Amino acid sequence: MNNNDVLANSVVAHMVENDAFSKWMGIEVLEIREGYSKIKMSIREEMVNGFGIVHGGIPFSLADSAFAFACNNRNNLSVALDTSITFAKAIHPGDSLVAEAEEIHNGRSTGVYVITITNQTGQQVAMFKGTCFRTGKKLIESGSL
């Protein structure tokens, strides 16, 4: 693991430690690299809407967490400017979802990421795109590595 990936993992570990919502969702970090994240979660009964399928906010939130972990892991506090999601397939309780965030653009003040969400059979269930603004503030001090 190179120094950039060590920093990326340290930043995400700090983020996860302080992220009550991602903990409630049951998100597990699978892989972190500079500008990249891969996370997973299992869908629970209380995540279902009135139509018997998973509420759209759940896969959106999973993708949003993957987006946050990917765009912040250079230790430059980044916030969402614009996000969108397209749902391709219904999600049900018991499904296991993986969100993979890939960096498309890393600029000085903005970043663009595409997050693909797949289920336990590898089918794409949603695609999320996010643009972030980089504030220039650090999330962790270099002494906490």
Distance between the termini: 14 Å
The number of domains is: 1
Give the total of beta strands.
6
Under CATH at level 1, the class stands as: Alpha Beta
CATH superfamily: Hotdog Thioesterase
Secondary-structure element series = HHEEHEEEE
**Proportion of residues in extended strands:** 35-45%
Q: What spatial form do the alpha-carbon principal axes imply? A: globular
Structural class call reads alpha+beta
Strand order of the largest sheet: 1-2-4-5-6-3
Number of helices: 3
Question: What is the CATH T-level topology?
Answer: Thiol Ester Dehydrase, Chain A
Major sheet size, sense and barrel closure: 6 strands, antiparallel
Polypeptide structure, described:
Helices cover 26% and strands 37% of the residues. With 145 residues, it is α+β, with helices and mostly antiparallel strands. Strands 1-2-4-5-6-3 form a six-stranded antiparallel beta sheet. Strand 5 (110-118) and strand 6 (124-134) form a beta hairpin. The mean pLDDT is 96.
Condensed summary:
The chain has helices at residues 3-17, 20-25, 57-72; strands spanning 28-33, 36-42, 78-87, 96-106, 110-118, 124-134.
What is the secondary structure topology, with strand pairs?
Elements (H helix, E strand, L loop, with lengths): L2 H15 L2 H6 L2 E6 L2 E7 L14 H16 L5 E10 L8 E11 L3 E9 L5 E11 L11
Antiparallel strand pairs: 1-2, 2-4, 3-6, 4-5, 5-6
